[in-house]
């Protein structure tokens, strides 16, 4: 299953309150290396016709009445995929398409109110953040960007912003064209280039 398929199959993917913060954007040397290699692997899979990337198992539980999936293991990978989809959707001018907005809005955080609001803000007003990815720095957020005053204390939000910067810097370094990004968007959403096994702990493991 792909992230795009999971967004369509469930009315909501909700990171439950028991989960920790999103941490792939931490800036220590080890996490930075892991983040950069992960992003490189994602883009390699999208560019190379011969490659696919298996992200292994995502475990969670489904509220059948709400068609809501709550990941228990896989939060970090799912959040990275959400950010990658958002980045390519904005880059390709697709973030305003009703189906794209609808699916991306299905990804939500219940860990903190500010994280939930920020994920929605990315989709509804995120072009402003995208436009600043080239030149804002962590220590400047609260001073230069009024929107950040709401989110600056949220470790998950700060981590998401670092990941988005890393994606931006990778794309810039590789000098991908708009056509390249369109092809990667298609590969991401239509070709099952990046996938995982999604298991419902109550249904599939009982």
Task: Describe the structure in your own words.
The chain contains nine helices and five strands. With 206 residues, it is of the alpha/beta class. The chain has a five-stranded mixed sheet.
Chain-averaged pLDDT: 88
Strand order in the sheet with the most strands: 4-1-3-2-5
Overall shape: globular
First CA to last CA: what distance? 20 Å
Quote the beta fraction.
15-25%
SS-derived structural category: alpha/beta
Order of helices and strands: HEHEEHHEHHHHHE
Q: Please summarize the sheet with the most strands.
A: 5 strands, mixed
As residue ranges, the low-confidence spans are: 137-143
How much helical structure, as a percent, in the residues? 40-55%
Radius of gyration: 16 Å
How many helical stretches?
Answer: 9
Number of strands: 5
Can you give keywords for this protein?
single chain; 206 residues; alpha/beta; 5-stranded mixed sheet
Strand-helix topology:
Layout: H1 3-9, E1 12-15, H2 29-47, E2 53-63, E3 68-73, H3 75-91, H4 98-105, E4 107-109, H5 113-125, H6 127-132, H7 141-144, H8 155-174, H9 178-190, E5 194-200
Parallel strand pairs: 1-3, 1-4, 2-5
Antiparallel strand pairs: 2-3
Helix pairs in contact: 2-8, 3-8, 3-9
How would you summarize this macromolecular structure in one to three sentences?
With 206 residues, this protein is of the alpha/beta class. It is 52% helix and 15% strand. The chain contains nine helices and five strands.
């Amino acid at each position: 299953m792909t992230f795009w398929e999971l967004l369509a199959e469930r009315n909501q993917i909700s990171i439950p309150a028991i989960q920790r913060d999103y941490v792939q954007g931490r800036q220590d040397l080890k996490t930075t290396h892991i983040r950069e290699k992960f992003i490189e692997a994602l883009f390699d899979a999208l560019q190379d016709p011969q490659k696919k990337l298996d992200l292994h198992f995502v475990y969670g539980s489904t509220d059948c009445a709400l068609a809501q999936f709550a990941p228990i293991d896989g939060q970090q990978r799912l959040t990275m995929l959400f950010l990658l989809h958002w980045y390519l959707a904005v880059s390709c001018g697709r973030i305003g398409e009703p189906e794209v907005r609808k699916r991306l809005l299905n990804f939500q955080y219940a860990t903190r109110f500010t994280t939930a609001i920020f994920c929605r803000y990315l989709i509804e007003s995120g072009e402003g953040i995208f436009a600043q990815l080239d030149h804002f720095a962590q220590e400047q957020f609260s001073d230069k960007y009024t929107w950040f005053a709401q989110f600056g204390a949220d470790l998950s939000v700060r981590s998401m912003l670092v990941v988005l910067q890393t994606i931006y810097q990778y794309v810039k370094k590789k000098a991908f064209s708009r056509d390249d990004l369109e092809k990667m968007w298609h590969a991401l959403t239509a070709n099952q280039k990046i996938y995982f096994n999604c298991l419902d702990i109550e249904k599939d493991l009982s």
